[in-house]
Amino acid sequence: MTRSRARVGPQSTKAAPRLDVDGLLDDPSVGIIVCCGSGGVGKTTISAALGLRAAERGRRVVVLTIDPARRLAQSMGIAELDNTPRPVAGIDTTHGGSLDAMMLDMKRTFDEVVESQASPEKAQQILDNTFYQALSSSFAGTQEYMAMEKLGQIHRDARVGEPDGTYDLIVVDTPPSRSALDFLDAPERLSSFLDGRFIRLLLTPARGPARLMTAGFSMITGALTKVLGATFLRDVQTFVGAIDTLFGGFRLRAQQTFRLLQADGTAFIVVAAPEPDALREAAYFVERLSEDGMPLAGLVVNRAATAHSSNLSAEEAAAAAGRLTKDPDSKDPGSLAAGLLRLYADRSRLVEREAGLRARFAAAHPEVPTAVVPALAGDVHDLVDLRRVGVLLGGQDGDTVVETG
Amino acid sequence: MAGSPDFPKARLHVVTGKGGTGKSTVAAALALALATHGKNVLLCEVEGRQGIARMFDVDPLPYAERRVATGLPAADGARGGVVHALHIDPESALMEYLSMYYKLGRAGRALDRFGVVEFATTIAPGVRDVLLTGKVYEATQRNARNKGAIEYDAVVLDAPPTGRIAQFLGVNSELSGLAKVGPVKSQADKVMRLLTSDQTVVHLVTVLEEMPVQETVDGIADLRTHGLPVGGVVVNLVRPRELGDKALTAVRKGKVDTAAVTADLKRAGLDADDALVDGLLAEARDHAERRALEDEQHAVVAGLDVPTYELPRLTAGIDLGALYELAGMLRDQGMA
User: Fold this and answer.
1) Is B164 within 8 Å of B111 (Cβ atoms)?
2) What is the 3-state secondary structure (H, E, C) of A354-369?
3) A–B: how many Cβ contacts below 8 A?
4) For the packed helices A197-207 and A215-228, what is the interaxial angle rounded to 10 degrees?
5) Which end of chain B is less crowded, N or C, counting CB atoms within 10 A of the terminal residue's CB?
6) Which residues span the domain enclosing B256?
7) A198, B256: Cβ pair inside 8 Å?
8) Per the CB < 8 Å rule, is A138 touching B211?
9) Residue A350 CB: number of other CB atoms within 10 A?
10) Could you tell me if B214 and B206 are in contact, meaning their C-beta atoms sit under 8 angstroms apart?
11) Contact (Cβ atoms closer than 8 angstroms) between residue A181 and residue B49
12) Considering the entire predicted model, what is its pTM?
């Protein structure tokens, strides 16, 4: 598919190895695929397309998405995605696969954790706490914790990897975090919080024994009261006191999920757009995953510009357009031919620029297998479009579109 | 006052947009444009990405206001003002806030030692947003507590993405509801008063594709629900307009006069064989298809009843020169 063009200097590196998407989807030992990357790169679409393709190749798949984009739900023929996996109709089941999809509802997930872990009375007390209600529904950060919680939950319930399990592949679309890494850091942060002195501090008045009140503690409590106001602090303390027992189980499961992500049955796919910022984020992600011992499958460069192959270079096209426009004999200086040439020049430059950016990424991370998905002209509307993205991911596009560069 | 033609009262310009639409670029260009005529502008970022430092080609920004550029010169050649930049991180914002308002002294350091600062800035959901918006408020409404600080004519905030913006800006009303009385409540109320006043405008950056446009429509509704003032919509990365409507129609219908095109190409000195003409037309068909989709989305944006601005996609990418170019376009269109 790629036509090589000799490069010198830092870009002379060979192209990155190709990411074998179908090989990955067909590998029965892979039970979880996590798609990550910065916002706006098409992570959710890629997750759905991977899920669909895997299902139509015979896997029993559930796609866990975080993005509440209604259009994607509609593209899978589901009016509204909710916290329970729903079967996707209209997929090709001739290879014995199936596809379910669900969207993370962080409040519902949090509520379920509370309800399943606490006595009904205590659960109600927590659910009624105003601080809890704000925390579980509208504050940023909760989403990452809940995504981990839900992933672990589905994995346990589905008994992934067992012959009679509900699913044998979970595809996860990670939350659109400020930093996509928040997802991975959630369990660690929770643990450090629970082991930290601050939680003990918050719990101290609730538990009573005044002998624990060291000078430092009382100074802190004083400072907090001054800043937060006594009522607010008391509300928070009541909440932390009530949920303290839940946190323990919560942390345990988050750690289990973290280990699950490190295990061989998991594959991370980093999604990026062929733009400097997205690729920089992707590079950071790749490095971070390898530091954490997370199994990285490869990089998907989504929505790459394509050009129809021709022997004409961008410069030649632009120069020819310039000659046409300046031609004193021309009756029509803004002629169609000149427009076509300028369009072609612009397109070729874009394709060349993107190829250069990819080559730089490959030079810095030569070991990362890469799949390039050409941009579709329109948005993804239905299963047909998702299937098309899947075909492009699989790298078997029969189209005439050829990548230059 | 740093009034811009379209937003004469605005002092705080919040710029949001779906990921990948170029909101940071637009925020930077807007800051340059607002700094025309000797005005002082502060450009803030809150997402820890050091995007400003990269765009303006300076060292990574500390938690301090640094001069990064001179504003766009006025049309009459008058020198531009100064653009300062500030990278707001929640830890520093918290410590600064505590020392500015509470004089906690040793207790402040103890807070750090006991992990309270870490808890507040990384674990406790929402607190980050309170601290970040709080600092933006402080920079916009300078008071006597921050001695010797620069007073800005305008502040531009490179804000979190559209999907999170109402939540981010509204965090203080959430907090104000939680803390019924006390200093936290009064501070939260003050921030909310600024953010919901006509001194604030929230601009949304989009590209002409379905999902980002839909998100913009939803974002505007969301902002209005929260009582947050909607500014303009900046349509970014607009495709080149090399072909007029007539040409596009001809391309779409396959009714291009190929003989004339071939003749023109030959006149331009090109070896115009069928392969070349077919290649150019195939490219044009793709372009026409995308343009049709853009036009549909353009109609949606036009129907939004907010001022809209357009910026082209610059094939060569974004560097400092490009930022000035974009700034000029925003000013010509009345945004600054």
Assistant:
1) no
2) HHHHHHHHHHHCCCCC
3) 234
4) 90
5) N
6) 245-289
7) no
8) no
9) 20
10) no
11) no
12) 0.86
Burial class (CB in 10 A: 0-12, 13-18, 19+), A257: buried
Substitution target in B172, B286, B297 with the highest count of A β-carbons within 10 Å is B286
Q: How many domains does chain B have?
A: 2
Closest approach of chain A CAs to the CA of B164, in angstroms? 8
- Determine the Cα–Cα distance for residues A160 and A169; give it in Å rounded to an integer: 7
Domain of B137: which CATH number? 3.40.50.300
**Contact (CB, 8 A) for B234 and B7:** no
pLDDT tens, chain B, 336 aa long: 446 889 999 999 999 999 889 999 999 999 999 998 778 999 999 987 788 999 999 999 999 999 999 999 988 888 889 999 999 998 888 888 878 777 766 677 777 776 777 767 765 656 778 889 999 999 999 877 777 889 999 999 999 988 889 988 988 887 777 666 667 778 889 999 999 999 999 999 999 998 899 999 999 999 999 999 999 999 999 988 888 888 999 999 999 999 999 999 998 889 888 889 998 999 999 899 989 999 999 999 999 999 999 999 998 888 999 999 999 999 999 999
Chain A residue at shortest CA distance from B116: A198
Question: Is the complex ipTM more than 0.85?
Answer: no
Question: β-strand A266-272 against A296-304: which pairing, if any?
Answer: parallel
Compute the radius of gyration of chain B from its Cα atoms: 24
Q: What pLDDT does residue B44 have?
A: 97
Gap from B230 CA to chain A (nearest CA, Å): 21
B160 & B251 share domain: no
Same-domain check for residues B265 and B310 = no
A-chain residue closest to B181, CA distance: A229
> How confident is the model at residue A37, as a pLDDT?
87
Token pair 């089941």 in the structure block, residue: A93
Instruction: Tell me the C-alpha to C-alpha distance, in Å, between residue A184 and each of A174, A251, B15.
Output: 10, 13, 28
In a domain, B255, yes or no: yes
Q: How many CA atoms lie within 13 A of A351 on its CB side?
A: 26
Q: What beta strand segments (E) does chain B contain?
A: 12-17, 41-45, 66-70, 82-87, 154-158, 200-206, 230-238, 308-312
Residues of chain A with pLDDT under 70: 1-15, 67-71, 79, 137-141, 176-181, 187, 190-217, 227-229, 231-232, 243-245, 247, 327-334, 396-405
How many angstroms separate the CA atoms of A282 and A268, rounded? 12
Asked whether B85 and B68 are in contact (CB, 8 A), the reply is: yes
Q: What is the pLDDT of residue A206?
A: 45
Two tokens, residue A172 = 């996860």
Residue among A343, A405, A368, A390 at smallest CA distance from A25: A390
Residues in A closer than 8 angstroms to B122, CB to CB, are: 189
Contact state of B240 with A235 under an 8 Å Cβ cutoff: no
- Exposure pattern of B99-125 as b/e (b: 16+ CB <10 Å)? eeeeebeebbebbeebbbbbbbbbbbb
**In a domain? residue B6:** no
> Which CATH number, 3.30.450.20, 2.60.40.1120, 3.40.50.300, 3.30.930.10, labels domain A28-305+375-394?
3.40.50.300
B171 shares its domain with B46: yes
Q: Note whether B29 and B178 are same-domain residues.
A: yes
Q: How far away is chain A from the Cα of B289, in angstroms, using its nearest Cα?
A: 7
Rounded distance, CA A31 to CA A160, Å?
6
